[in-house]
Amino acid sequence: MRIDVITIFPEYLEPLNVSLVGKARARGQLDVHLHDLRSWTTDVHRTVDDTPYGGGPGMVMKPEPWGAALDAVLAQGADALASGEGADAGAAAGAGEGSGDGGVPAGEVPTLVVPTPSGRPFTQELAQELAGRPWLAFAPARYEGIDRRVIEEAATRMPVVEASIGDYVLAGGEVAVLVMVEAIARLLPGVLGNAESHRDDSFAPGAMADLLEGPVYTKPAEWRGREVPEVLLSGHHGKIARWRREQAFARTLAHRPDLVDRWQLGAFDKKEREALSVLGLRWDGEAGRFRSVADAVEE
Ligand code: 6GU
């Protein structure tokens, strides 16, 4: 996969050289190119922002540098694939350039990912969808955001996804890019050592959809007077799987009752329904969702 990031703080993306993502780059599984937005400014001050039309606080990122940057990144990526190589980003910061098989098919355009608190939620499902694309370009903004016309014009040329990593406001999208790239990279084939490690992730499609992963333990079996739950030492795989699932139910109910609202009765077998009942959850057929006994009493 090829990834381009256009930012006024390329150094903010240095962590892409470390750990899982860094190793994926070193192995040529990820071809990351960082670009300094200011290299597409034309004035001596290298200005990237201006006051908002209509008034109000803060500054807005000017359209011209973004337009020129996206043009250049599109052309570079296209050239890179024509020459069959990860092209060096001329404007890249030290951490930026990479080579290896970007794996971008001819005629391809990137999917533009714009991190913004007003985007759609960045979920495991979206991470999975983006992990299936050969080329992503990220446009993290600072200040109050990017002039809207940049996004609209880009959308006439390539798929655009505006995404938020949560209900809070960051000073800029760079950290969100780190979050998204890491979530995407670990889904790429061969990046995680053990392909099965995805399977039990919270939010993993299948058995863990809408479910948070429960607690984990390692040696020693007793630590500061605390023992590892006996079932995990039993060697009984069926019982262990069931126990883990029940822990996941309890944890999801405690931390994310909004996910419980998505559970459907048919997803649970008889023993699981018993476990849900022990947690105080009863299926409400009319409402089409589980209700906790405590809520039912309140009403
Ligand atoms: Cl993607 N960007 C910024 N600036 N703040 C955020 C965010 C993104 N997601 C949540 N908060």
Describe this structure as you would to a colleague:
- Helices cover 31% and strands 16% of the residues.
- The chain is α/β, with parallel strands linked by helices.
- The chain has 2 domains: 2-185, SPOUT methyltransferase, trefoil knot domain (Alpha/beta knot); 222-298, no CATH class.
- A hairpin with a 2-residue loop joins strand 8 and strand 9.
- The relative contact order is 0.12.
- Residues 86-101 have low confidence and may be disordered.
- The structure holds 6-chloroguanine.
Brief account:
With 299 residues, the chain is α/β, with parallel strands linked by helices.
Task: Give the key terms.
alpha/beta; 299 residues; five-stranded parallel beta sheet; Alpha/beta knot; 11 strands; 31% helix
Topology:
Layout: E1 2-7, H1 19-26, E2 31-36, E3 49-50, E4 60-61, H2 63-82, E5 111-121, H3 124-131, E6 135-138, H4 148-155, E7 160-164, H5 174-185, E8 222-223, E9 226-227, H6 237-255, H7 257-260, H8 270-278, E10 281-284, E11 289-292, H9 293-298
Parallel strand pairs: 1-2, 1-6, 5-6, 5-7
Antiparallel strand pairs: 3-4, 8-9, 10-11
